[in-house]
Amino acid sequence: MAQQFWPNSDPLNDQIIVGEQARQIIGVAGDVRDDALNRNPRPNLYELSAQMTNTSLLTTEPWAWVIRARAAPRTLRSAIQEELREASGGLPVAGVRTMEEILSRSTAAQNFRTLVLTIFGCSALLLAAIGIYGLMAYSVAQRVPEIGIRLALGAESSDIRRMVVMQGLRPALAGVVCGLAAAFGLTRFLAGFLFGVKAWDPLIFSLVPAILAGVALVAAWLPALRASRVDPLHALRLE
Length: 239
Prior knowledge:
The protein has 239 residues and is mainly alpha-helical. It is 59% helix and 3% strand. The chain is built from ten helices and two strands, in the order αββααααααααα. It has helices at 2-5, 55-60, 77-87, 99-106, 108-142, 144-152, 157-185, 187-190, 202-228, 232-238; strands at 15-18, 21-24. Strand 1 (15-18) and strand 2 form a beta hairpin. The longest helix has 35 residues, at 108-142. The termini are far apart. The mean pLDDT is 79.
């Protein structure tokens, strides 16, 4: 509220009209995300209950008390309810919750969606690894005569492994590049699932492609290792 209505001045030097009375501004509180953690804070005004002129508001609207305790909050629930009952003149007290419970409930839907996206992401990673391995194994099996001829003509096993690995990594790296481009384009959508971090976090955008490239490398290395151990005589006999 201070940033919106007093962007270039000190609000403590001003007054605000509440109802029909002018009230002196005595302080500026910090922003509170009372709607949701992924929504921007709204302008809020805090008023002393003793100065509120609308008495019906005091009795019909629910009150929310925020209490800071040094001990475990769960052990103080009964004592807190009793003290609040006395302070409010006997009004009933319900819905006593810890801040952890409030945060957990407010982010439950986002946490569930994040879990689902994580499961889908891990499944996609597993399917990609299986697909690369199956494709490379099939390609090596089809090229056994060619590999045997290369070995018979003096090709080293390391050359065969390098050739097979590079052929397997090319489509995988192309997929990683396309995935990065799509991820950059979906940062606004992903921002709704994140709290306290940015959707374009450099660590994530460098770590995830490295993991994907590592999985592709392992999936391509096993068929390449098998291809480098092909017996040239057996391969030429098949030819």
